[in-house]
Design a protein that fits this description.
Elements lengths: L5 H19 L41 H5 L37 E3 L7 E3 L12
Antiparallel strand pairs: 1-2
Length: about 130
């Protein structure tokens, strides 16, 4: 058995946090289509549904934010200081990170590290983990 060290703690913390986020995320169950043999009656017209809140409506993370500084966030991965930020991998960006919640082709998307704010798809931070 390994003796617990600070280095080991730092190595496993991102994975433990990711597992916790996954476990606490709401699970969406697919809805099955109703099995009807006769056509369903058309429903009465209803009021227009409320617009859905998307990640596009959220404010952007700014480089001056305390949390952005903590994670070394930049709006463009090309601007990342490769000397200071040793774990930067060429070609890495928010849009190919496991934490990025935007869809393919989105310019911005959510990230659980910056709750309530959007990150740029071409951005980068020190918590970047490659999507599988």
């Amino acid at each position: 058995m390994q003796t617990p060290t600070r280095r080991r703690f730092i190595e496993i913390t991102p994975f433990a946090c990711l597992a916790l986020l996954t476990a606490c995320s709401p699970q969406v169950e697919p809805q099955s289509a109703p099995m009807a043999t006769t056509p369903a009656p058309s429903p009465a017209p209803a009021a227009a549904p409320a617009p859905l809140t998307t990640t596009m409506n959220l404010p952007m993370v700014e480089k001056g934010d305390a949390q952005a500084k903590t994670f070394g966030y930049v709006d463009d991965a090309i601007q990342a200081d490769k000397v200071k930020l040793k774990n930067h991998v060429s070609g890495s960006a928010c849009n190919n990170c496991v934490l990025y919640q935007g869809k393919a082709g989105d310019v911005v998307g959510g990230c659980p590290l910056f709750a309530g704010k959007n990150v740029a798809a071409k951005g980068w931070c020190t918590s970047w983990l490659k999507k599988a």
